[in-house]
Amino acid sequence: MQLIRGLHSLNKQSSCVLTIGNFDGIHTGHQKIIKRLVEKAHELKTPSLVISFSVTPESFFGRPKARLSSFRDKHLFLKSMGVDKHLLIRFNDSFSQTSATSFVENILVEKLKVRHCFIGDDFRFGKDRLGNYELLERLSKPNKFITEKVERVSFENQRVSSSAVRQCLASGNFSMAEKLLGRAFAISGKVSHGDKKGRAIGFPTINIGIRRRLSPVLGVFNVLVEINKETYHGVCNVGKRPTVGGEKTLLEVYIFDFNREIYGERVAIVFKQKSREEMKFDSLEELKQQIAKDVEIGKQFFKSSAILG
Questions:
Q1: Looking at per-residue confidence, does 282 or 190 come out higher?
Q2: Quick one: 282 exposed, middle or buried, by C-beta within 10 A (0-12, 13-18, 19+)?
Q3: Which of 142, 229, 235, 299 is buried deepest, with most CB atoms within 10 A?
Q4: Cβ of 96: how many Cβ atoms within 10 Å?
C-alpha cells in the first residue's frame, strides 16, 4: 500500500474510490466502510484510497482524545484489508479554514479524481463542520462522482464507535471492546531501555514507548505478550509510576518466566483483564509486595482461562 504524506506529495491521479475519516482503532464500523471501498475499487478497476489525518481535528481544536491505535498499526491494518493508497493530511490552521465545498471540488475532484466516495452516516467535514452527506451528494452530480453513505454498525443495541470503545477500555470491559473492535485491544511498539527499577526489586520489565499524551487504558492489567509469533503471559502497568516519582505515562510489562533481552524488538501487548488502579506506595518494599500479589493474581487468571477454554 502506498503512503502519501500530504497533499503536496500527490502525483497526478487518474481516478480513485475513496473514504475519509480518523479511523481510530479501525473498529467494525470502520471495517464495514473499508470493505465496501475495496470491493467498489475492484469493481471499477481503480485504486482505493483512504484519507486520514496526522493531527486529528479534535486535537487541533484542543479537544484531544485517547488514541486507540498508533499510526503504524492503523496503516498496517488498512493494508491488510486491501487498501491501495493511504493519504495522510496534516490538519493545521490553513487546512481548518478550507470550506466543505472547496474540499470537495479542489481536493476530492480536482486533485484525487474521485469516482465513488464512501462516508459514515455521521461524517462531517470542512470549515465549521458544515460538510455532510447531503452536501457531498449535491456536489457529486455536476462533478461526476457517486456518494454512498454506509449505515452505522450496532452491537447489542449499542452504536459501534471509537468513543464506545474508549468507554469500554476505561471501565475495564475488554470483552465488549473486543466485540466492537472485531479483535482484542492491543498496544504494540518497540522494547526500549528503562531505568531498571523493576529489575532492582526482582521484577524486571520490558518498556514500550507508547507516544501518547492520553492513554485509553490506565492501571494494572493481565496481558498477553506477543513476541516473534510466540505468546507469553504477563502483568502490565500503564501509568506514571507515582511511587518512583514518574512524570510521563509509560507502559511496562513483567512477563512470567521470561529472562531474554529483547531490546529493539517489536511486541504487542494484548489486554485481557484489569487487575487494579495504579497506586502510590510509601516504599519500594511495599511496591514489591504488591507486584508479587499482582503476579499471583495474573497467573491465577490465566490458569482459570485455560481451564474454561
A1: 190
A2: exposed
A3: 235
A4: 13
Place of cell 466516495: 117
All cell numbers assigned to 191: 522494547
Entry pTM:
0.88
pLDDT reading at 55 higher than 90 = no
DSSP labels, 71-137? HHHHHHHHHHTT--EEEEE---HHHHT--HHHIIIIIIIIIT-EEEEEEETT--BSGGG-B-HHHHH
The pLDDT score that the predictor gives to residue 58 is: 79
Q: CA-CA distance, 81 to 79, in Å (whole number)?
A: 5
* Collapsed DSSP state (helix, strand, coil) of residue 58: helix
- Measured between alpha carbons, how far is 3 from 16 in angstroms, rounded to an integer? 15
Helix-strand-coil split of the chain, %, nearest 5:
35, 25, 35
Strand partners, 188: 268
Beta strands 16-20 and 48-53 are parallel
Domains of the chain as residue ranges with CATH = 2-158 (3.40.50.620), 184-308 (2.40.30.30)
Residue 203 amino acid letter = F
Cα distance between residue 152 and residue 269, in whole Å: 29
Using one digit for the tens of pLDDT, what is the confidence trace for 100-142? 999 999 999 999 999 999 998 888 888 888 889 999 999 999 9
